[in-house]
Amino acid sequence: MKRRYLILVGFLVLIALGPLILPEFYVTLLNYIGLYAIVALGLVLLTGVGGLTSFGQAAFVGLGAYSTAYLTTASELPVWMAPFGASPWLALLVGLALTAMVALLLGALTLRLSGHYLPLGTIAWGISIYFLFGNLEFLGGHTGITGIPSLSVLGLEVRYGREFYYLIWAMLLVAVWLTQNLLDSREGRAIRALKGGTLMAEAMGVDTARSKTVIFLIAALYACLSGWLYAHLQRFVNPTPFGLHIGIEYLFMAVLGGAAHVWGALLGAGVITILKQWLQDLLPKIFGSSGNFEVIVFGVMMVLMLQRARDGLWPILAKLIPDSAGDRERSSVPHADPLPKKPLLQASEQLLEAKDVVKEFGGLVASNNMSFSVRSGEVLALIGPNGAGKSTMFNCISGVDPATSGKIFFRGEPVEKLNSREIARLGMSRTFQHVRLLPTMSVLENVAIGAHLRGSRGVLSALLHLERAEEQRLKAEAARQIERVGLKEHMFDQAGSLPLGKQRILEIARALAADPVLLLLDEPAAGLRYLEKQALADLLRRLRAEGMGILLVEHDVDFVMGLADRVVVMEFGEKIAEGLPEQVRQDPAVLEAYLGGVE
Predict the structure, then answer these.
(1) pLDDT single digits (tens) 495-509
(2) Pairing state between β 350-361 and 428-430
(3) Do 408 and 531 belong to one domain?
(4) Which of 209, 231, 247 is the last residue of a domain?
(5) Is 411 left (phi over 0), alpha (psi -120 to 50) or beta?
(6) Residue 361: beta bridge partners?
(7) Are 42 and 170 contained in the same domain?
(8) What is the mean pLDDT of residues 196-206?
(9) Which of 386, 345, 348, 388 is nearest to 370 (CA)?
(10) What residues make up the domain containing 464?
(11) Which residues pair with 157 in a beta bridge?
(12) Each residue of 134-193: pLDDT tens digit?
C-alpha cells in the first residue's frame, strides 16, 4: 500500500480513537474544528477553486442553526410546518431548502459582480442577515433561542460532546468525499476553469454562470449543515456566532490551510482553532492581565504565515508525501471507447461566411463591412498591421463581442446573435492571442476542459462518483488529442511548466478536444522560435489535410504565406485585399499598408 493511503488510514484511525483516549476539553475542541472545517470546505470550493471570495458564510451557518432552533422549539407552528418540527432531521431538510433559496437569490444578485465588488457584496448581505437574526422577535432577538432538543441517530440519542463527535466528523468526511469527487470530474474541471477567466471557459462550452451558482450553492449548504450541527450540540443559539468577524475567520481557515486543496480546510480549521485557544491561555500569563491580546498576536501571525506560505500550509505538507497527483495519473494513460464525432465534412464545404460585418465601439468603427468565407480543408489567413481590427473581427465570429450589424453564418446557420458557448456547441473552437491555460493543472486536465461539451453527466452524478465511465472517455479523448499534436511526453506535466511554443500547441489540442469543424487560431505563432513555427505549420497542414477549416489571425507574413490557401488583408477595420498568397503579397495596397513589408 502506498504511503499516502497509509497516512489516510492512520488519520482515520486517530479520528475514530479520539473520544476514547482524549480528555473532554480536547474532544470539544475537535468538535469545533469539525464544524468549522465543514464551512471552510465550502470556501475551498468557492474561493480557492472557483476564485469567488465570500465573507458571508457565517450567515448561512446561522440559517441552518436558526431554522432547526425555531422549528424544534416553537410551541405553535402553522399546520403545513408542524410535521417538520417533529424531528431535527426534518428541520434539517427545511434549513437546507431555505438556505438553497436564499443562496440562489443572493447568488443572482452578487455573482454578477467582479473584482472587489463581489467580496463587498458578500459583506453587505452577511451583515444584513446577521442583524436580521437579532431583530426578529420570533427568533428570540439578541437573546436567542434555548431548549433545542438533542439528536437521535438510529434510535440512539446523541446528547453529549463525545457522542456528537462521531456525527460531526462522519458528516465532515462525507463532505470531503463529495467535494473531492466533484473536483475530479467534468463539472469540477468547469469549476476550475473559472480561474482561467470567463472568456476561456465560455469558449470551451462551460456555462460559467451555472458553475458559479453551483459552487455558491454547495458552499452555502455546507455552512447550513454546520449550523444545524452547532445548534443541536450547543442546544442554544443567538446571533453572535454568525457575524461578519466569524465569516472572516472561516475565510482565514480556508486560505491558511490551502484554499485550493480539499484537505486544507481541515488543516486550516485545526491550526486556527488550536492557535486561538493556545493564545487565549498563554498571553494573559505573559502580560499579567486579561484582554483581547490574542486577536492582535493572531493577526500578526496570520500576516506572517500568509507571506511565507501564500498557497497555504497543505501544499507544504503534501511535498513530504512522495505520491503526488501527477504520479497517480502517470501510472496509466486513460483509454476508453472514442466519443461520438460530428459527421464528416464534404470537400470544400462552406463553413463560415461573414457578410458586411460592422463592429462599433462608441464612435470608433473597428470593423467596417467585412466579408469573407472559410471552407473545409483550407486555411484562410486574416492579416494586417496592428490596430487593423483583426482581433475584433475574430471576436465577432466567435461570439465574444457581437457584431453591431451584418450577418455571420456558420454551416448555413446565422450565429451573429449567439454567445461563444452556443457557437462552440455548433462546432467552432478557438485559441487565444494571449495563452489562457490553468498553469497548475496537468496538460491532460487542461485539454479535457475542451471536451466539456461532449459530456452530459451533471453535478449530482459527479458528487456521488457515478460519472466514471463518461469521465474516462473524456480523458481518453484528451489523451488522443495530446498525442495528435505531439505532446504525449508532457501529458502529466503541469501546463505552466511548458515553454510558450508548447503552451500554444496545448491550446490547439484543447480546441481539438471539442471536435470542431472550424478552428479559429489567434496569433498562434506569436513569440515562437523558428523550429517551433515549423512544428506548428506541420500540425496545421495535417489538420487541413483531414478536412478541417482553419481561420488564422497572424502577424507573421512569412509564416502565413507558406501555409495559407487564401489571405484576407485588413487595414483600419476594412478589407483592402483578398486572394492567393502570391497575389496578395504583390498587391500595391498591401505593400503600402505594410510600408513595403512586415517585421
Answers:
(1) 999 998 899 999 999
(2) unpaired
(3) yes
(4) 247
(5) left
(6) 364
(7) yes
(8) 90
(9) 388
(10) 438-500
(11) 152
(12) 999 999 999 999 999 999 898 888 888 888 999 999 999 999 999 999 999 999 999 999
**CA trace torsion 208, 214, 219, 221 (10° rounding):** 160
Residue 429 confidence (pLDDT) above 80: yes
Tell me if 476 sits within 8 A of 334, measured CB to CB. Answer: yes
Assigned C-alpha cell, 60: 448561512
| Residues 401 and 496 occupy one common structural domain | no
How far apart, in Å, do the first and last CA atoms of the chain sit? 59
Same domain? For 459 and 579 the reply is no
Which residue in the block uniquely carries the three cell numbers 505552466? 496
* Helix or strand (DSSP H, E) at 405: strand 405-410
Q: What is the pTM of this model?
A: 0.91
Residue 155's φ and ψ, nearest 5 degrees, are 85, -5
pLDDT of residue 324: 46
Residues 398 and 445 in one domain: no
Please say which residue of 212, 229, 247 terminates a domain.
247
Which of 171-175, 365-369, 388-392, 437-441 has maximum average pLDDT? 171-175
Contacts 24+ apart (CB under 8 A), 328-337: 329/442, 329/444, 329/492, 330/492, 333/479, 333/491, 334/444, 334/472, 334/475, 334/476, 334/478, 334/479, 335/472, 335/476, 335/479, 336/469, 336/472, 336/473, 336/475, 336/476, 337/473, 337/476
The reply to whether 122 and 57 lie within a common domain is yes
Query: Taking a C-beta distance cutoff of 8 angstroms, is the pair 523, 433 a contact?
Result: yes
* Same domain (yes/no): 239, 366: no
The answer to whether the beta carbons of residues 406 and 356 sit under 8 Å apart is: yes
Cα three-residue angle 167-171-176, rounded to 5 degrees = 150
Which three cell numbers, joined as nine digits, stand for 366?
473597428
**Residue 309 maps to a domain:** no
